[in-house]
Amino acid sequence: MLDGFLALYVFMLAAFTGYEIIARVPVILHTPLMSGSNFIHGIVLVGAMIALGHAQTPLEIGIGFVGVLLGAGNAAGGYVVTERMLEMFKSSRPGGPEQRR
Predict the structure, then answer these.
(1) What pLDDT score was predicted for residue 7?
(2) DSSP class of residue 94?
(3) 64 with 55: CB under 8 angstroms?
(4) From the centroid of its chain, how far is CA 48?
(5) Which residues are listed as membrane-spanning (predicted)?
(6) pLDDT of residue 59
(7) What's the pLDDT score for residue 69?
(8) Contacts from 21-24 at CB under 8 Å and sequence distance 24+?
(9) Following DSSP, what letter does each residue of 44-76 receive, concatenated?
(10) Cα separation of 98 and 95, whole Å?
(11) Which single residue of 2, 57, 82, 93 could bond 35 by disulfide (Cβ 3.0 to 4.6 Å)?
(12) Chain centroid to CA 9: how far?
């Protein structure tokens, strides 16, 4: 029982700390911050898959499935945002940089 409360405490502390850190980031830095943290989304996804692999009760399996689903969506969304950000830096001129001379 104590382990459950400790896990809930750590989760709530991490959620509060994450919210406070992200809330203080200037708007212009949100996209680079997201693209720079894509590896963290992958680690979260691997952790959710490991937790789902160890699940035994239907409740644990359901929570694990939702965790994997949200982790995969978060990782894929991070790469989509990164791709959109990189598209903004490409030249809109036809022909590319070698034909500008």
Answers:
(1) 87
(2) T
(3) yes
(4) 12
(5) 6-27, 39-55, 61-81
(6) 92
(7) 93
(8) none
(9) HHHHHHHHHHT--SHHHHHHHHHHHHHHHHHHH
(10) 7
(11) 82
(12) 21
**How far apart, in whole angstroms, are the C-alpha atoms of residue 38 and residue 36?**
6
Instruction: Let me know how long the chain is.
Output: 101
What's at 7, amino acid-wise? A
Domain coordinates of the chain in residue numbers?
Answer: 31-90
Question: Please, is 68 exposed, middle or buried when counting C-beta atoms within 10 Å of its C-beta (0-12, 13-18, 19+)?
Answer: buried
What's the gap between Cα 86 and its chain centre? 18
Q: Is 45 exposed, middle or buried (0-12, 13-18, 19+ CB in 10 A)?
A: buried
> Which residues of the chain have a pLDDT value below 50?
none
Residue with token string 């809930």 = 8
Q: What is the largest CA-CA distance in the chain?
A: 71
What's the CA gap between 97 and 101, in Å, rounded? 8
